[in-house]
Each structure stands twice: as structure tokens, then as C-alpha cells.
Amino acid sequence: MEQTSRSTSATASELTVSEIVVNFQGLRAIDRVSLRLARGEVLGLIGPNGAGKTTLVNVLTGFQEVDEGEVRLGGADMRGWKPHERSRRGLVRTFQSVLPFAGLTALENVEAGAMAQGIGRKAARAEAREVLAALGLADKAERRVDTLPFGEERRVGIARAIAMKPQFLLMDEPGAGLNDAECDELKTVIQRIKGEINCGVLLIEHRMSLVFGLSDRIQVLQQGATIAIGTPDQIRSDPKVRAAYLGDEAI
Fold first, then answer.
1. Contact in structure between 194 and 229 (CB atoms under 8 Å)
2. What is the pLDDT of residues 182-199, one digit of tens each?
3. Rounded to two decimals, what is the model's pTM?
4. 243 contacts: CB under 8 Å, gap ≥ 6
């Protein structure tokens, strides 16, 4: 999974959010949240349902405007950048639902991700085969994606995102619906994304074994505000986090 940038902009070393506010019809969904994600880092983002996690990802990827605050990729202000412009500059997301192109093969799905970065069909196909092989899916390349088991279908979705050459990959509940063995495979995939292509990963996930097993730092949201940021050990023992979200769960 060798990383080469096709963007005309300089490689960004950091994704930052500063004091952002998002209001929905008088309701404050995000309340002065700041966030920093570096290349080669996994940042876990956790909190109860409705805490603002997906809204924050929508802000980062251009699907939601902010009322106040700044969102920057490298040093560049991303206000006014459309979602496709952000993805071409290395900011890529996966969704809670897999969203494959159901009538296409696994290879064609990943090829579409590569072509979204502006390369030709032949080069995109070669790159798609390389990414599928790296994720242990080479033998599934010619299978229609909607005939694959759910865990493999989800890995194809991640492969499609990797083919877009992310500098930062925002993963919205990638472990949803996976069994324990599939989660172990997912954990290996995310570790490789972090290490081999030096990609920053923002991981939103309710499966705490994944979050605490993968994250370098964890940020906790409650009612649209940050209540804690720290290492897994710090978050595990934080009384505010236990009261708001973790309870007595052993992690």
C-alpha cells in the first residue's frame, strides 16, 4: 500500500479543527470543539449517541458548514472546499453503511476509488489489484461485491477509500456488524493503514476493544462538547468519561 500523492497541493502533516460551532435550528450540535489529527496517528472519537461525532466528520468532509471556528488541512483553510475537492487533497471518509456499488465486482469498486483521484482506467485497475492484495482480497477481485460476506464487503469499502490515496482517513463505525474474527482483521487493516501509508486515522467506533486497541489518543464528546482528550490509559481511568459513557465496562 505505497502512498504517493497526486494532489497539486503540498502534503498536509496535520488536520485541525479550532473552536467550531454548529447549530441546527437553534440546537447547538457542536459546542466549540477543537481537534488535531497528525499523519501516522489514530485518534479515537467516542461518546454517546447524539454526542456530535458524525456531525464533526460531516464538518471535516464538507457535508456540513460551521457557524463559527476553523477547519484546516495543513495550514489551508478548507472553507468553501467541496467534498470532492477535500477528497482529492487527501481527506477521505468511510461511512457507517458500506455503500458499495452493488452491481460491480470488488475490483471495479476499488478501481472507481482510484479513478476518483484523476488517473486513467489502466493505472487505476493496477492500483486496485495492489490494494485488494494488500488487504487479503486478491481472490475476491472478480466477485460481485454484493455476493461477499459482510466483513469482506466492508473491507472492499475500506480498500476503495485507500485507493483514493488518503492522507487522513475518517472511519465512521467500521466495526459495525462485524463478528470478533472480522474485527481482528479490521484491526490489522487499520494498523497497516497507519503504518504503511503514514495515514492519519480518525476512528469513530462503539466497539471499545477496537478504539482502545488502536488509538494513540482518544477524544470524548458529550452533548456536542469535548469532555476529555488523552491516551487510552488516561481515558480509561477518567471519572467523567466513565460517568458519561464507559460506565463499569472493563477495557
1. no
2. 888 888 888 888 888 889
3. 0.85
4. none
